[in-house]
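name: query_chain
kind: protein
chains: 1
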Amino acid sequence: MTDPPSWRSRAKTLAPGRSAKKQATKPAEKPTAKPQAESTPEPRAEPPAADTLPAGWQTLDATTAMELLSTNTGSQSDAVDAAAADASAGNAPDTDASDDQATSSPRRRRRFSWVEWTGIAAVLGLLIAAMLMYLQRPQTEQSAAENAAVLAEAPAPPAVDPPTAPVDPSQSASPATAAKSAPAPKSAGPTTAKSIAQDVLADAGDGSFALQSSGVVAESKKPVARQPDPTVETAPGGEPPPSKQTKPSAPLPRAPNPNTLIPLDRTPIEHAAEKPMRAPLSLPQRSPAFVSFERVYAVAFETHQNYLEQKRSAPSSPEIEALLGECIVLFDQCLGRPADESTLEQRHQIASTLAVLYFDAGHLYAAGVYGLHVTRFADPTQPVAKAAATLAFAAFQEAHQVHYTGADRSGDLHQLEHLCDLIASRGIKHPQLDTMRFATAQFYQRDGFHLKAAQTYLKIPKRSPLYAKAQLAAGREFWAEAVRRDNEGINKQRAAIVSCAAKYLRGAIDQIDPKNEITAPVLAGMFSLAEISLMRDDPRQAISLLDGKQGVVELAKKGKLSKEFVTAAEECLFQAYSQSGDVEGIQSSIAALSKRYGPRGKERIASLQTKVARDYVDNLDPDQPVSAVQADQLETLMRSILDPKRSPSTNVILWAAETWSELATRASDQNVVMQCHRQADELLRRASESNELTTAEKMTLHLKRVDLAQQSGNAARTISLLSEILRQSPAAIELQIMAAEVLTEDAKVTGDADRFAEAIAGRRDDAIWGWAKLTNTLARMHFDSEDKTRYLDRLLSSGFHLNESRILQARATPPGDQRRRLLDDSKKHLRQLIATFAQSSDEWMDKLQTLETMIEQSER
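structure:
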């Protein structure tokens, strides 16, 4: 065996031979012959531009073969017209010398007038203005907040249906048969065991894949817990009540023309080859034929028949390779003969046969080149055009499946798309065109080119039986592209891509008959549309798609889809209920997730519940008082979070206590205030029992409980809490002052003389001193301190409250010795305070003198 013929030599065989050029120019080389006696050959019409071979084929080689497949036929037509003009000029008789001189001499260029110059300037000005308006047009961009969450790994490409198997060159199957007989592609990567929303979902059934979730639950888009209507109760799984919008939603962008979307420059997602590559057959070197076309073609035809017979009878015979190589050489020689020895139809038939032979020999690109050539230039109504297109698709498809040029190249996919577009543009009635487009889109989809896949799916016409599947697959691919751009932090055209995803998913789902069985790809499409609805703050639509008997969750369970897919759907439903503010729906979805997560998902459930409560509180209207319904809903949400059986962390308990304490200040209903204080006090008590806190931290929590009791006006509770502290630290002056003030305020409310006596003398257990002991202690501390201003204010305050309580007790006491004694003691003590301490402060002087006035009034 010798080396195979070069790409350049094969390409030259498709062009007209050199001998034809010599024959065309032969009459011009004999000017002395008589024109009358010369046997001029009969003129032959030039072939039309559409049937002329591409001029670029003369420079075809191994590196540029694929680029020349997309050669513009317009340039080829110009080259043919130019060649025809040169030929006619060469055969034409000589003209006069004057004509030659006139033709060769340059013509004088006419000058433009000022009117013409003005018109040209006006046109240029309009063009510049139009370009500026186009460049300054508004662009719809996604906000940075909606695209802040960027996941680490990119989503695996989803697939809807298995790609078609290599098409048999000898026969054309129907689209349905090709789709059923095709093997299902493997996944681009293994499914990991991380969180469901971050990882690719497992097989959703019948060879399709569910789309990746947009992120961890409530991570990529923060759910908004709105305030539900308190008068409407929603059962889990039922239609949710209308949520109250906290702010008017922005109008959704309209879906643009999908062809205006620009795919990003990406490398394919590498995956293993679907089947092993066939070893290309070593071909003998091509040699030119020195006999006529008829003789070479007869030998080639007979050899081809022998090859076909041998292929049918003994496909593994060693002679078959020799026959195959001989057939290729002979048919190449046929194309190498001058073009006037054969018709254009014969040359197209030979090129189509060579495409089949090269395909059998394992030279896939050579087969694709010949098949694409015949598809472009043959009569579209002839069977040879359809057969060549089928063979070219099979060659490029197999090249992509076996990684003919490497796993990181995508040129085969572009050739498949170009071939389908060429079939459609030439009007070739190919029965498998829609199946070819569907398979090409699936290849794009598997390799991670989601936008190209969607655009290819949309080229399938409405009359095709694959139209419904293609529309649904296009919507899913638009959404996969949007998710991937969000993960990569790319905002360019993302909003437009999301709008296209919503449009085509909605249209495909609306066309589904609910009486028919809903397939796994349809459920995956419904799930994707629900995610888009959540992103657009439309939880009601998401709930309608996910919940209920015809929702994704129930249908996925009945269809026995993967656990990962069902879990992702339930998490999406949880987000939808969270955004709508449906507390009962939230509880039901959390219960379902708890069963699905199992014991290992305890912390995850707790984090979900805590986040729901946080979002609910954050989205309460700060300008409106907290209502009883809202307080009850929050208590319901926190009940499961703070269940002692779940062992909530101390931080969660403290957060809940702080939340209730803050809500108490925003409530106007006294019952709601008491409810908030009660919840906060109980949570602070639980937190103070934790071993994680130090003694000082526990004391701080105890003082917070005292403040809550004071704010609620519960004097008995306040005194009880203070007594617990003062039994351990009776010398805490500030707490003693606080306890005495509480006793005084309680006495003023009741007007009971015994209560005033308790505020003065303290409790019997000596935990609370009262104003009398406080005044004496502060006076001693004042005299012992070198800084005479340190305790002065507290001493005067204590003395003021002591004498005020005596006066009020005297007023509450019937006339008698005890009343007179109380007034006398108060009068005497006030004189000492004024004389000893109050001289340095006019403010305290006025207050103490006010008490003296009260004594005078009481003595009257």
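note: Confidence is low (pLDDT under 50) at residues 1-107, 138-249.
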